[in-house]
């Protein structure tokens, strides 16, 4: 039995991106994007046809079945979550984060990806909340502000003093 390998997932992602950009995915375009020979693309797409992920015809190129589209979108979403996490949260340079995210997207468990995504969503929500509660400091780093906010069902006191931000509390909302 053939299973979808990491390399095949990359093919599905490239096919998906080419269709999004050009309206179609030709074997030549896939080979150029993947830096492989057209014969390699032909062999791999034949395997993807057998798995029910793609269909192909010489005149129409390669296109995704519903299953192939679902897999490609899943890989793409995982890549974007990891790339964002690496660049925005960890501060990894973009050229490195893209390579690392591409490697990690195939290895990490979906529960881990979901946890990373949830962490980023909480961080974004918290930043928005801090901005709304404290408002703009208008460049006055010495000014002190504080406010109370609810995030994830918990009360938090947010204090901005002498240019430093502190979160206090986290008591459950009753």
Mean pLDDT level: 83
CATH topology of the domain at 6-73: Arc Repressor Mutant, subunit A
Would you state the CATH class of the domain at 6-73?
Mainly Alpha
Please give the alpha-carbon distance between the first and last residues: 54 Å
How many beta strands in the DSSP annotation?
5
What is the CATH-assigned architecture of the domain at 6-73?
Orthogonal Bundle
Q: Unreliable segments (pLDDT under 50, ≥5 consecutive)?
A: 137-142
Please indicate the percent range of residues in DSSP E strands (runs of 2 or more).
15-25%
Largest sheet strand order:
3-4-5
- Helical content, roughly? 55-70%
CATH homologous superfamily label of the domain at 6-73: Winged helix-like DNA-binding domain superfamily/Winged helix DNA-binding domain
Silhouette: elongated
Helix count? 6
Biggest sheet character: 3 strands, antiparallel
Structural class of the helix and strand makeup? alpha+beta
Assembly context of the chains: single chain
InterPro entries: DtxR_MntR_Metal-Reg, Fe_dep_repressor, Fe_dep_repressor_sf, HTH_DTXR, Iron_dep_repressor, WH-like_DNA-bd_sf, WH_DNA-bd_sf
Domain HTH dtxR-type: 1-65
Family: Belongs to the DtxR/MntR family.
Keywords: DNA-binding, Transcription, Transcription regulation
Report on this model:
This protein has a domain at 6-73: Arc Repressor Mutant, subunit A, CATH 1.10.10.10. The protein contains 6 helices and 5 strands, in the order αααββαααβββ. The protein has helices at 6-22, 27-34, 38-50, 66-89, 94-104, 110-134; strands at residues 54-57, 61-64, 145-151, 154-161, 164-172. It has a 3-stranded antiparallel sheet, covered by helices on one side. It has a two-stranded antiparallel ribbon with strand order 1-2. A hairpin with a 2-residue loop joins β4 (154-161) and β5. The longest helix has 25 residues, at 110-134. It is elongated and about 70 Å long. The chain starts with 5 loop residues before the first helix and ends with a strand. The model is unreliable at 137-142 (pLDDT under 50).
């Amino acid at each position: 039995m053939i299973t979808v390998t990491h390399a095949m997932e990359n093919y599905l992602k490239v096919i998906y991106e080419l269709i999004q950009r050009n309206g179609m995915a030709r074997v030549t375009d896939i080979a150029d994007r993947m830096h492989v020979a057209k014969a390699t693309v032909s062999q791999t797409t034949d395997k993807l046809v057998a798995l029910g992920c793609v269909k192909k015809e010489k005149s129409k190129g390669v296109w995704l079945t519903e299953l192939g589209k679902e897999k490609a979108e899943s890989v793409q979403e995982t890549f974007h979550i990891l790339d964002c996490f690496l660049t925005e949260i960890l501060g990894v340079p973009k050229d490195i984060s893209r390579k690392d995210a591409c490697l990690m997207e195939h290895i990490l468990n979906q529960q881990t990806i979901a946890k990373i995504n949830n962490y980023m969503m909480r961080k974004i929500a918290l930043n928005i909340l801090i901005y709304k509660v404290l408002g703009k400091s208008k460049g006055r780093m010495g000014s002190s502000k504080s406010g109370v906010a609810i995030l994830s069902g918990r009360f938090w006191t947010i204090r901005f003093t002498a240019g430093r931000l502190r979160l206090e509390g986290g008591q459950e909302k009753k």
